[in-house]
Design a protein that fits this description.
Blueprint lengths: L13 H15 L8 H15 L4 H10 L5 H10 L10 H18 L6 E7 L5 H13 L7 E8 L2 H9 L1 E2 L9 H7 E4 L2 E4 L1 H4 L2 E5 L17 E6 L8 H14 E9 L13 E5 L2 E5 L38 H5 L11 H31 L3 H14 L4 H13 L3 H14 L4 H13 L3 H16 L15 H11 L1
Parallel strand pairs: 1-2, 1-7, 2-6, 7-8
Antiparallel strand pairs: 3-5, 4-5, 8-10, 9-10
Helix pairs in contact: 1-3, 2-4, 12-13, 12-14, 13-14, 14-15, 15-16, 16-17, 17-18
Amino acid sequence: MSRGHYGSKVDLTPAEYSRFRDLILARTGLYYPEKKKKDLERGLAASLIQANIPDINTLYQHLQRFDEENPLWSVVINALTIGETYFFRNKLHFKVLKEYILKKFIDQKNEHERTLRIWSAGCASGEEPYSIAILLYETLPLLTQWKIQIFGTDINKRFLARALEGTYGLWSFRKVDKEIMKQYFIFRDNEFVLRPEIKQMVTFQYLNLLRNGYHSIYSYPNMFDLIICRNVTIYFDDESIRKIMQNFYRSLLPGGWLLVGQSEPQPKKYTDFKVHSYKGALVFRKSLPFEEEKEPLEHPDEYWLPPARTLTKTRIDLDWPTSQTELAGMELPLLPQKSSSFLKSSVQASEDTFQKTAQHDLNEARELANQGKLDAGERICLNLLKKNRLMPEVYYLLAMIATERNQLDEAERFYKKTVYLKSDFVMAQFGLFNLYLSQGDDKQAQIYFDNTRELLLKLPANGIVPHSDNLTATKLLDIIDINF
């Protein structure tokens, strides 16, 4: 068994695993249960190399002696955290911000109190707070008359350095309107540089969410109008989440809002807050003194993202065959009785024409869906299936559309149709893994995690995974490994 000398694989004994797990939890809040032990070992192995420390026991002794702001802790945190993000990630959340929360701020704040303080907690490399800055720039009337402060904090100092630089590659702009890119970024040396008027709206700061020292943002009660903390607390244990939520509540102004990720824990973790629902998304609000809720939610769990399965909207019935036998027994239109040579050439020509037309239509449907025109994209998909019900790419796009609408029963059904037709469709296997993981069904998630991982390991490391928006096999492996 390797003992973790530099350059070697770390294989923790049960006692070593418990020591590192508890120390990292106590200092950072990052929680590594038994199922994530391999992730912890990979991070520690990378830390040994970067810090030039000879073995795992020496690393533990140094970490125990130093506080978490020591450079060695930065090395370990950088190795353990993955900042998977991009501009305007999750369109529904930005729709909620624009149409619901910001509208309330505009209506409530008069000309004498046009101030907004917003905190992006766990901001990674800055795409989220900069997206908020762009949204405000486009949404707020009389912007120059507002006093706006946006804070971005993270525990990973390497991410913060990238955020401060404000320079991004094309990968950070997947699903972003090209007009946004043209208006707010300067293309230079094959990178996109944020314009100064947006960059100056955001202040970045190192912060450990569990250490609310005197000089931290937490030291100011009733300070923020809005806190956004998405896909951060999923890496914490329940006690850490409780502490963080208490601090968020304290930091919000009365009437302030909290927005969390769709895969975050259930609303019972946020008992101090009032729960509001807008177009299927939940947001949390700190009540005003003596305020009575006008529209209380009796069953907030039913509106949670992902929603309860009973909320699934009307299912689209495509008469899908449930077995290979049924599939083989389907009645297909008969071809004209022509000579065999004529039949082959005419069928091939017809098939080629259909494939070209179908690909064109599928690309159009995908583009419409990316623009948020889900109904139009869905109509094209359904028309394609009327002509040929055996197209896995169409079912995959329908699964993505259903996911965007939070119709998770429909998404599950379409994902399964995709893998039924094409078992090596990596992104459909990954979609099922992610869906079951978000619903807390670890048994089913494990099945599709294994399927996805097995398929990815067969691909070239730097090869692009089909239908993944240019993710390499290695990158997608990193993403699934950190999430399970």
